[in-house]
Amino acid sequence: MSQPSYAEHIKKRWKTVLLFGVITFFLVTAFIIFFLPFEFRADTQVFIMTRETSFEAPSYAVVATAERLGENITHLIETSRSLDYVMEASGGRIDRTFFPENPRKQLNKWKRSIQTSVVPGTGLLRIAVFHPQRDQAALIAQTIADVLATHSREYTGFDLEIRQVDAVFTSTLPARPSIPLNALLSFLLGCILGSIYVVAEQERLLKL
After folding, report:
1. To 10 degrees, the CA torsion angle through 85, 89, 94, 97?
2. Could you tell me which residues are beta bridge partners of residue 126?
C-alpha cells in the first residue's frame, strides 16, 4: 500500500496547521501593538523645474532633466546637512529629541523617517514623512518642501525653481507598522510552520 502524499497528510491535519497560523497571528500582532511605535504618515509633492533649460528644448528633455535632478535631491535629502536645514527652518517647532544625539543614530533615524521618490515623466518629487505624532509628521514634510524651495541651488548646483504643488496630507490612522499586512503575513508564516511540523511528525512516525 502506497503511503499518502505530504499534501494529503497536511490536508488531513488542517486543524493543526490552522492552529499554528492562529497562534503566530496573535503573537506577532501582540508584539506589534505592545512593543513597536505607531507612526503617522504625511505626504506632499513638489515640482522641479530648471531655469537654465532653454525654452526651445523639447518637453521630454526638460522632464528628463527634472527627473535626473530629482533623483539627486532624493539622495541629498537623506543627509545630515538636510536635517540641519530642516531643523533650522522649523524655528524650533520640530521636536529635536525625536532624533538621537549620536550623529550616526541621528542620521539613521532621519533616513528611516523620510521617503522620497520621483514620479516618472512628470518632474514631480514625492515626499513622505513618518512620525509618532501627526502634527510633527506634517510639520517636517512642510518644512522639507520649504527648504527645497529656498535651498535648491545648494542641493544641486543648478538654478532651479522648486514649487510645492500639494498641501500636506496626514494619515488619519497610523501608517507604520501595517497591522493588517503583518497579521496576514504572520498567519501565512504560521501555516507554513504548521505544515512543516505535520510533515516532520509524519516522517518521524514512519521511521518507528
Report:
1. 40
2. 45, 117
Distance set, CA 124 to CA 100, 162, 199 (Å): 31, 9, 52
Asked whether the beta carbons of 158 and 65 are under 8 A apart, the reply is: no
**pLDDT-based confidence at residue 139 (cuts at 50, 70, 90):** very high
Asked if CATH classification 3.40.50.720 holds for the domain at 40-170, the reply, yes or no, is: no
Q: How far apart are CA 152 and CA 161, in angstroms?
A: 7
Cα–Cα distance measured from residue 147 to residue 169, given in angstroms and rounded to the nearest whole number: 18
Q: What distance in Å separates the CA atoms of residue 46 and residue 102, rounded to the nearest whole number?
A: 31
What's the chain's average pLDDT?
86
> Is 153 within 8 Å of 159 (Cβ atoms)?
yes
CA Rg value for the chain:
25
Global confidence as pTM: 0.78
78 Cβ contact partners less than 8 Å away, ≥ 6 residues apart: 110, 111, 114, 116
Placement of cell 514634510 in the chain? 141
> What whole-number distance in Å separates Cα of residue 27 and Cα of residue 34?
11
